[in-house]
Amino acid sequence: MCNEKHVVDVIKFYEECSRRKDTQSSKDTTKSILVFRSLEEGDREGIKALHEDLFPVKYSEDFYDNAVRNKSPTGSPLYCRVGLLNVYESGSNNDTLTLLNNENEMNDNARRIDIVGDSTQASMDELANFLGMDIDCFDDLDVENVISIKNEKSIEDAAESALNQRIVACIIGGFSESIRIRDAKLVEKLVRNFDNHPHMFYLMTIGSTQAFREQKLGTKMLKDCLKMIERVPTCGVVYLHVITYNVAAIKFYEKQGFYRIEEIKDYYNIDGVRHSCYLYAYFVNGNYPTFYQAITSVCRSMYSYFFS
Ligand SMILES: CC(C)(COP(=O)(O)OP(=O)(O)OC[C@H]1O[C@@H](n2cnc3c(N)ncnc32)[C@H](O)[C@@H]1OP(=O)(O)O)[C@@H](O)C(=O)NCCC(=O)NCCS
């Protein structure tokens, strides 16, 4: 697994490559990597552009200010990870290639984007602190580093438009104390025993640009996040809202084991038009759905299996 220094090395190397880019044809010799890291102040415009591209909902300027500080409006730490696509020339720096190759063979430029990740420990330490856990509790999070991207054309499109380094994916969410959530009915629906599970995790946004969809990048981001949450025994649930017509996201969450809890009418106001959403929940660390939530979810899955 790459650490923070490796990621910085990769970015420096990448910047050097981009300076030399004009003199060589890039298409035949480029390789691409996705670097995952926490959000930084300089990502504000990139993350805003990505959100405006991905979501019909307009987020406030405060949302982006808070996200790049990895802080929620109440000051509690956020879990924010972005995927930066880096395109670089292969073969021009063997040392760095060795570094990137240390776990994988990079033998098929056009078809594959390798992922390196760091856990940007400072923000994870803040999370641990907020949750009252040991500061090193997330140290050895074993994130999956590599996925294979299947769609050759998508990669080339992505690389072409990448302008060498560009945010192409992100996930943002945060823990809250259930006792501080104003909607007591919501908490009751999601947590069976408040003493055992005083924390909840709200998944605010997740997504990637079109070229990276349906290639398991969303699954990777969500699974990494769930692995982190499973380390927090006081957290019993991950919950989110999804607009009712977002079929891809609904199938995505259901595939990951999320339960549909209810429909909330007119939850979103997009350009003056009201839209309903579904509340979804993923139960962790010994918390569990009610019998009704479980049975309706099984019936819905069977219905989709046979009729869609
Ligand atoms: C939702 C989103 C994050 C999914 O990420 P992704 O990387 O495309 O999804 P994955 O490749 O990991 O897919 C995992 C599963 O999700 C489901 N899925 C994903 N995209 C789908 C689609 N377009 N249609 C139907 N099912 C889909 C499938 O069950 C898939 O499993 P399968 O490949 O074995 O069939 C992605 O579509 C996206 O970025 N959408 C725009 C932003 C958004 O709507 N975010 C959610 C807001 S609540």
UniProtKB/TrEMBL annotation:
It catalyses: N-terminal L-methionyl-[transmembrane protein] + acetyl-CoA = N-terminal N(alpha)-acetyl-L-methionyl-[transmembrane protein] + CoA + H(+); L-lysyl-[protein] + acetyl-CoA = N(6)-acetyl-L-lysyl-[protein] + CoA + H(+). The keyword Acyltransferase applies. GO terms for cellular component: Golgi membrane. SUPFAM superfamilies: Acyl-CoA N-acyltransferases (Nat). Keywords: Acyltransferase, Chromatin regulator, Chromosome partition, Transferase. PANTHER family: N-ALPHA-ACETYLTRANSFERASE 60 (PTHR14744:SF15). This is N-alpha-acetyltransferase 60. It comes from Chaetoceros tenuissimus.
